[in-house]
């Protein structure tokens, strides 16, 4: 009989240091999460470095790594040792001139269960990701692991209901969002509350609309490494919510910590039976959703 519950974790961290130091830190925190009973564990976006997309600098391409390199080998060995599944977001060098913002999904035997490449790439002040990342070409996925069937989207993907919908329709029981989101310090007082509120509301909405668990793993801390700028203050507040948008675990804005919650498949099925949004979708009327704009 299939297991009806499993425990997930998101790890909220400050990631300002070198790749080696960040990797050691993340390995340590994953061990801590596994010791607390976590069976599927996610790190924040681009775990191995500071958030380098604050500037457009070709030197930052040296931070990227090919598939199967140290971000896979290190965490693959740990997944196998601890019997856990891992979501490891990293800067992928696919070939010279083509780079992705990606995430490994590593199964409990250390194998690569799946790979996700971020589909939506932002280009905002100090979030200059289009300079670095080619949009993903693997589509939206639900990856089967020995612990459960999980979806992974990355940061800017979280604003798109279509991404969550397609991931859920492919069978994801939980959607993980490795994230690097925060405030421009000069704007925080005026806009910060609404920006943070919108972020929470849209992802809770994905959970409700799709009857799916949602887990966001964010960074914390001020990353100010460019002269003459205020940097970005990553707002933390990582969270896990259930299929009715109910908060199951919530992190602080400024502390490194682990959040844990149970994925209860019987509860998820009950929610979908009582709120049958998938049943009532008018798929016959949705063809215009693939258009860039709709001309009346």
From TrEMBL:
Gene Ontology molecular function: any one: hydrolase activity
Organism phylogeny: Bacteria, Pseudomonadati, Bacteroidota, Flavobacteriia, Flavobacteriales
PANTHER family per record: BETA-UREIDOPROPIONASE (PTHR43674:SF2), NITRILASE C965.09-RELATED (PTHR43674)
Name listed for the protein in its UniProt record: Carbon-nitrogen hydrolase
Keywords: Hydrolase
UniProt keyword tRNA processing present: no
Species of the source: Sediminicola arcticus
Occurrences of domain CN hydrolase (ranges): 6-265
Pfam families: CN_hydrolase (PF00795)
InterPro entries, sorted: Aliph_Amidase/BUP, C-N_Hydrolase, C-N_Hydrolase_sf
């Amino acid at each position: 009989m299939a297991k009806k519950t499993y425990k997930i974790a998101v790890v909220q961290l400050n990631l300002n240091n070198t790749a080696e130091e960040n990797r050691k830190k993340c390995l340590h925190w994953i061990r801590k999460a596994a010791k607390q009973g976590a069976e599927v564990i996610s790190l924040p976006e681009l775990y191995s470095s500071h958030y380098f997309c604050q500037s457009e600098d070709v030197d930052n391409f040296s931070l990227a790594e090919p598939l199967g390199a140290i971000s896979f080998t290190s965490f693959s060995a740990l997944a196998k040792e601890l019997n856990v599944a891992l979501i490891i977001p990293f800067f992928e060098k696919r070939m010279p001139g083509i780079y992705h913002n990606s995430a490994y999904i590593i199964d409990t035997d250390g194998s690569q269960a799946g790979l996700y490449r971020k589909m939506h790439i932002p280009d905002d002040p100090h979030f200059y990701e289009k300079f670095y990342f080619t949009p993903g070409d693997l589509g939206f996925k639900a990856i089967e692991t020995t612990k459960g069937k999980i979806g992974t989207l990355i940061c800017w993907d979280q604003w798109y209901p279509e991404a969550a919908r397609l991931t859920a329709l492919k069978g994801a029981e939980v959607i993980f969002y490795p994230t690097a989101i925060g405030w421009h310090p000069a704007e925080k007082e005026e806009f910060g509350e609404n920006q943070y509120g919108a972020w929470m509301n849209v992802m809770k909405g994905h959970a409700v609309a799709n009857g799916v668990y949602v887990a966001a793993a964010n960074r914390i801390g001020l990353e100010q490494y460019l002269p003459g700028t205020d940097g970005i203050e990553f707002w933390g507040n990582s969270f896990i919510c259930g299929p009715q948008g109910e908060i199951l675990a919530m992190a602080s804005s400024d502390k490194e910590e682990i959040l844990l919650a149970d994925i209860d498949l019987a509860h998820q099925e009950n929610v979908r039976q009582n709120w049958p949004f998938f049943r009532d979708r008018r798929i016959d009327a949705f063809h215009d959703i693939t258009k860039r704009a709709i001309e009346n």
